[in-house]
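Field reference: sequence -> structure
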Amino acid sequence: MTDQPDLRASHADRDRVVETLRIAAGDGRLSAEELDARLEAALTSRTLGELAELTSDLPGTPDAGVGYGPGHGAVAPPTKDVLVIEQKGGQFVRTGAWVVPGRIELRPKMCDVVLDFSDAVVSRDTLRIDADMRLGKLIIIAGPGVELDIDGLTLAFSKFRLRGDRHRRYEADQDTRPLRIEIVGTLKYGKLIERRARRRRPGR
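Structure field:
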């Protein structure tokens, strides 16, 4: 594959490049604007050559999968895949084409957390959220293919508002990768709110 830039890219190839871009942004190698632009390009790339151009200026390993020759877009192996949220006060928001990690450690205080999965980049089947949250709202905006499981969540002096039962799933279309969100831990003096993503108008 590495010497065939015109070969059609697979979903796995795109996922590996998305992971490399996310890691590079986390290391400070890409700005938020650069990350958004490259993520959009990665998700619409048709060939390995197009994908390789997106990572050609980033460190990587030649055997990681995508690329075609020395210095042409080797993909770095995944590293730590945990998002830690410890903000105090205000609001923490993840929206747009953000990359869903394997796990989120949720430890804010007096802070509202909004996780919008409408346009999120999903590269795995399950997201585990370990919650130790106090005095705040956790707002989940569930897009197509999202299943929400809160059986492991303890609500202490808290409320939840779901659009269905404790195992709510939105049907995915053929272009959407399903995602199961498991929320465990404790929500104290707070509220869990689930919202459905707005339907897009045709042509958008």
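Note: The chain has two domains: 1-79, 82-196.
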